Amino acid sequence: MVRLGSIDFQEVASDTLVLGSNKGGWIYSSQRPAYEVRLPAFFIMNEFLTRADVAAALQAPTPSAKANLPMDDLTANDVEELCQNIMESSEFNTFCEENEGSWEVRLPSESEWYLAQGEGTFTLSPGTNERLVDGPASNNRGAMMDGRPRPNEFIGPASSQSAVMAVHPRNATVFAKGTVPSQRPLPGVYARLVLSPIRTSPVKRVPTSTDAGANIRSELLWTTLLGIVPSFAIPIARGMGAYAIDGWFNLFFGGLCAGFITGAIWRPKRPTLRYDDVHSLEDVSDSVSQ
Description:
Elements: E1 2-4, E2 7-12, E3 15-19, E4 35-39, E5 42-44, H1 51-57, H2 76-87, H3 90-98, E6 103-106, H4 110-118, E7 129-131, E8 161-167, E9 175-181, E10 189-190, E11 194-197, E12 209-210, H5 212-237, H6 241-246, H7 248-265, E13 287-288
Parallel strand pairs: 7-10, 12-13
Antiparallel strand pairs: 1-2, 2-5, 3-4, 5-11, 6-11, 7-8, 8-9
Helix pairs in contact: 5-7
């Protein structure tokens, strides 16, 4: 355990995990591709930031009311200012002198959050939302493969958003990633900090584009086998061969619709992108089947 001021950080050992889903149905497209993340050891709070924690880090008077309750009126800028104050403290400088490499205090990245949560470093409370350091993303293309923060690369309204882990209102075992405004506090949106090594190696990211050719060929194959072929085979098997010829357009269109519907639910599993499959930042533009 590491203590910086009044904040305790629990160690999370280095490990490798897989994020995302390799299910092929369209409803899982926002969770693809499944990719491997290799994380170094880091430290994370096992509780949310409280008003007492913030006051101590900013060397401000400790509030008498609700001092030890989780604080949900912090913006991303507030958290960044708080982290900067912690990194200017003597405890942080002492920690850096005793440990190799460069370190930083910040919000957790998605992969750091998943690893710490999976190892039981902290427990989840129903109905809570927790800020992440990552920018918003519609899928896993472009995700970091070593646990470093994912930048916000959107233009427009999404540029003012940041990622959040939202826990189901009644079931703490169900959670999902979403987005919240970066510079506006919201009720029920909390923060916990990590003490994490700064990654200095060349960045590895999930390729940003899909293998469009492979996806189109796969879709044509399975739409034909699961939609068009049965659409013609059923009337022929029932002795309505004439209709298979006269009503071919209706059968063909119906087969396409059936094929598209099956595509929403099921398609063959996609490969998981391994850490060693990507060599450097230059590989970001390479295609990966999704």
